[in-house]
Amino acid sequence: MSARDPQDVGLKGDAELRKDLDATVRARRDLGDEYDSALVESFLEKVEQRLDGAVDRRVRRQLAEQQMAAVRGTARQRNPVDSWGERYGFALLTLILAVPLSAIAGALAGFAGIVATWIGIVGVNATQAIRQHPELLSGRSRRSGGAE
What we know:
This protein has 6 helices and no strands. It has helices spanning 6-9, 15-31, 36-72, 84-109, 111-132, 135-138.
């Protein structure tokens, strides 16, 4: 068994709990076998209270760490609407519509119409990408924590 922090192993380092166990063993010797179950139940209740307290402290500490990470911006919150369909569906739709729009623009206005159509398609897709990922304009990725 490797050496670990006593809190990670359990209640190994809890002096008060050791005193309670010693008192329970002495009381069992003094009172006899008929009180075994009551003494064991009493001691187990104390152990359970200590475990509950330790778990509560750990959960509170982890929640506080997560909240601090969110406040600092290191944990990127996912947009619930940010799905595969929204990310790629819009781009696919504009590319599908680009074919007939290019044909119409080419027939009516020639090469200048095709260029104007594609500038519009690129502009619409760029606007959608920036709306979904505002950090694209700042030049920094939020995933890197903002450190440059």
